[in-house]
Amino acid sequence: MTNKKRIAIIGSTGSIGTQALEVIEHHSDKLSVEVLTANTQADLLIEQALKYDPNAVVIADERYYSKVKEALSSTDVKVFAGQQALEEVVQMETIDMVLTALVGFAGLRPTIKAIEAGKPIALANKETLVVAGELITSLAAKNNVPILPVDSEHSAIFQCLAGEFYNPIEKIILTASGGPFRGWLREELEKVTVKQALNHPNWSMGKKVTIDSATLMNKGLEVIEAKWLFGLKGEKIKAVVHPQSIIHSMVEFEDGSIKAQLGLADMRLPIQYALTYPERLKTNFPKLDILAYPNLSFESPNTDIFRCLSLAYMAMEKGGNIPTIMNAANEIAVEAFLNEKIRFLEIPEIIEKAMSEYNFIASASVNDFFETDLLVREELASKYNIKH
Ligand code: MG
After folding, report:
1. What structural domains and CATH numbers belong to the chain?
2. How many angstroms separate the alpha carbon of residue 297 from the centre of ligand 1?
């Protein structure tokens, strides 16, 4: 028997997944890898499986099954393929915690299955809460399953709330770097390239999150994520641009006191905190020297130009399937931009149009979420000639 916490990483080949593996390797006396899954990156999945020796791996894209199976044939790693396998593997008895590190709406089904199986969730897939926040949080409460935030902002808030259980939150201040186009005018944004948008000043992240950061949709998604994680009304959540990305977010209490969490822009810290909570383990990762940052500054986001943040507040207020429509339209619009099918400023236009055009379902069921997502995704993907 082992006393190590056995982690399933859903989406192990992405930015969060690979950093989570570094954290686990760093604390191999306390943490171990039980399951790894990837969508299409078979080579990296094979490499990870050979190195970390998980109980099982899943390659979601079935075309790569034989490749992965063959490469791992001399090991005892179980190999599965397909979406169905992804949903089943999270329920394995030997898993102690599921890290949802995959990107986009695809995270919803495996997260639901993991919660139903009573697995604590380290949540890095913000879209899950954006689309189905009410469903997920009530399901988690019903199954007595903790959801530990991995997103740096939400981890910061979670850390600020330690020991404050009985104290009501007056306000949450989510910090945003402002992305690569902070302070730019609309005329300047007309012609920005994919390369410019992918050049984030502070954080190194996957492409989807990086584009979301450039449009401020990332902060919009995080506002909705915060609403559900911390059970707050939308008006209590404020986004503030903080270009240095040193304060990862703040909580204001009713007495006017504000607590903040500071650190370098390094995702390994919030990942580790979620995996080892409530313990804080020693690391040799680079640490923040506050003297290197004598000027921390704050400004209001320009929501006239960066419309996505306002759209997210609108979607949150309306509720029902509107956040699902917004999220699906955003995922396709980002993909279309990355494929140079649309311009940067068309991203909010496409989202806003979708939010007003598709049928509003006020009290949406799980099926409504899946149907809405599929409908919006398929129509927009074919309109912009995007594979999805
Ligand atoms: Mg974040």
Report:
1. 5-149 (3.40.50.720), 154-265+288-309 (no CATH), 319-388 (1.10.1740.10)
2. 18
Going from the Cα of 281 to the center of ligand 1, the distance in angstroms, rounded, reads 22
What spacing in Å lies between the alpha carbon of 19 and ligand 1's midpoint?
15
Question: How many Å apart are CA 374 and CA 352, to the nearest integer?
Answer: 18
Return the closest-CA partner of residue 11 out of 25, 1, 21. 21
Contacts with 345 (C-beta within 8 Å, 6 or more apart), sequence order: 186, 189, 190
If you measure from the C-alpha of residue 151 to the centroid of ligand 1, how many angstroms do you get, rounded to a whole number? 5
Q: Give dist(CA 326, CA 149) in Å, integer.
A: 22
pLDDT in tens, the chain (388 residues): 568 999 999 999 999 999 999 999 999 999 999 999 999 999 999 999 999 999 999 999 999 999 999 999 999 999 999 999 999 999 999 999 999 999 889 899 999 999 999 999 999 999 999 999 999 999 999 999 999 999 999 999 999 999 999 999 999 999 999 999 999 999 999 999 999 999 988 888 889 999 999 999 999 999 999 999 999 999 999 999 999 999 999 999 999 999 999 999 999 999 999 999 999 999 999 999 999 999 999 999 999 999 999 999 999 999 999 999 999 999 999 999 999 999 999 999 999 999 999 999 999 999 999 999 999 999 999 999 988 7
| Cα 156 to ligand 1 centroid, rounded to whole Å | 10
Q: Supply φ then ψ for residue 374, to 5 degrees.
A: -65, -45
Cα-to-centroid distance, 1 and ligand 1 (Å): 36
Beta strands in 267-329 (DSSP E): none
Cα–ligand 1 centroid distance for 205 (angstroms): 10
Residues with CB under 5 A from ligand 1 (ion): 151-153
Q: How far is the CA of 222 from the centre of ligand 1 (A)?
A: 7
**How far does residue 13's CA lie from ligand 1's centre (Å)?**
19
- Could you give the angle at the alpha carbon of 13 between the alpha carbons of 97 and 130, nearest 5°? 60
- Ligand 1 geometric centre to CA of 124 (Å): 9
Whole-number Å distance, alpha carbon 3 to ligand 1 midpoint, is 31
Reading the block at residue 70, the tokens are 């063959």
Provide the β-strand partners of residue 31.
5
Please give the distance, rounded to the nearest whole angstrom, from the Cα atom of residue 55 to the centre of ligand 1: 30
User: Token digits for 290?
Assistant: 């506050």
